[in-house]
Amino acid sequence: MNRIFVILVVILSLGSTCLARSLICNACISGIETYKSYLRSGSVVEAEKRKYYERCIKSGSSRLFCAGRRDNVVPYEYKAQISKYNSDEMCWSYGLCTDVKYVKDPHKSYAAKVLAHSPPYTTYEGLAPNRSKPIKFLVVTDIHMDFDYREGKKVTCGESICCRTTSGNGGPGDEHSGLYGHIGKCDLPVITTQSFIDHATKFTDLSFVLYLGDNPAHDMWEQKPEVHLKGLKKFTEMLKVLKVPVYSVLGNHEGYPCDQFDATGANQHQWVIEGALDAWRDWFTPQMKETFRRNGCYSVVVPGTTLKLIALTPFTMMSSNRYLWGNQTDPLGVLKWFEEELHDGEEKGQSVIIFSHLPPNHPPFNPYWSERYLVLVERYTNIIRGLLYGHVHQDYFTILRGRNHQPINIAYTCPSLTTYTYNNPAYRVFEIDGNTYKFLDYVQYSMNIEQSNRERRPLWKQSYRFTEYYNVPSLSVRSHLLLRNEISVSCWRKCRTMRQYVRRLSS
């Protein structure tokens, strides 16, 4: 494959003439088609496995990691995925085929079409709140529950995840994993996951729970479909104790291998769809099941309200999903379905909360999908009350902007329950107005892992309430703009608000 692009670089030196562009495009298409023919040969998988293992060892990775990826991941990449390359789509996405016939609904024309009949932008800042009847819901994400976590194991082990049976016991001077976890490259023990459930049961006024995905641990080199489903079903059973509807989405780690999901309609990953539906059957209507089977998404109106929840799959928006290399603009027709759901909500006078695993414009977000997605968010921002995401394992917000850089909405990236990437476990409870569905506030809760390990009991506490911590009246766009103005470049050295915000990111 590298030789193909060397040839393309040579052709690029010919200049930007029409002939050069045509040669570049044809060379790209021919090169990819040749590579696809190579992949169809019978011995390619074994040959690529050997090559991968040699490269992996030379890169300094452990034999355990390299052997696991060689046996469990590489066969999928070279047999089930790469052979699905669409040469026209790929060469267009690389910018090597630019003639009109290769352009798949350019972004500018798509945006103009979608936004042509937009109503005047209005904020719901002026809508009269009804704080006497707030709706509360819990958001939790990125569990990464590790069934192989063990107390007393090495926390630095030379692998991408430690604190496990294979990590070793270490010597007297080594740091060891605690009963409830370790802040670092270790995922969450089952006992700590259960302690979250126990703590969350104190909320008797929740209307629903949103789970934003990612059950499996970070041992990507040795995962198998049955292990993925084991974690998904285990955590879902735990959540049932809360006795409210649980609306979930799949995370990128639910794919096998990680990030991979067949978005071609061939149903190669139907096992995860059916496994999720079996786990979530108590809360899914026949219509939700039908949509989820078709594209991994669904919508539901919260009973007794006009609040619609729209759940989006991460797999059609991830550039790292190789199955998208045959269709990067709207695989499985998710964006078309999303637009129809938003239009239906607008027609019915509903308010909308969007939730998914992967935040827009965060790697590995597919830019072609992201552009169109954000155009739809802009078009229907008058009914969208908030957007909720996970994946990053950190706590931050993004001010979404539309035409002329106008702020239109807020996207919240919620903290992880896992300690992987150096954070204490955390989750939050949102409060929204029962009349306007305006986001009023949220309270974040966290567990102090080091202290819990010392005292050998789970110690959960309230970390902060957003409006009190940042001294703003609500979660409105205006409040976030005021906060953003305080968290400015000039504040890096002395601003109290900046220090508070950084503290939240690293807690």
Protein architecture, described:
It is built from 17 helices and twelve strands. The chain has 507 residues and is α/β, with parallel strands linked by helices. The strands form two sheets. Strands 3-2-1-10-11-12 form a six-stranded mixed β-sheet. A six-stranded mixed β-sheet has the order 4-5-6-7-9-8, with helices on both faces. Helix 8 links the parallel strand 1 (135-140) and strand 2.
Unreliable parts: none
Largest beta sheet: strand ordering = 3-2-1-10-11-12
Q: Please give the alpha-carbon distance between the first and last residues.
A: 43 Å
Please count the helical segments. Answer: 17
- Report the mean per-residue pLDDT as an integer: 85
Note the overall shape.
globular
What portion of residues belong to β-strands?
5-15%
The SSE order reads HHHHHHHEHEHEHHEEHEHEEEEEHEHHH
Number of strands: 12
Gyration radius over CA: 24 Å
Broad structural category:
alpha/beta
The largest sheet is: 6 strands, mixed
Specify the helix fraction band.
25-40%
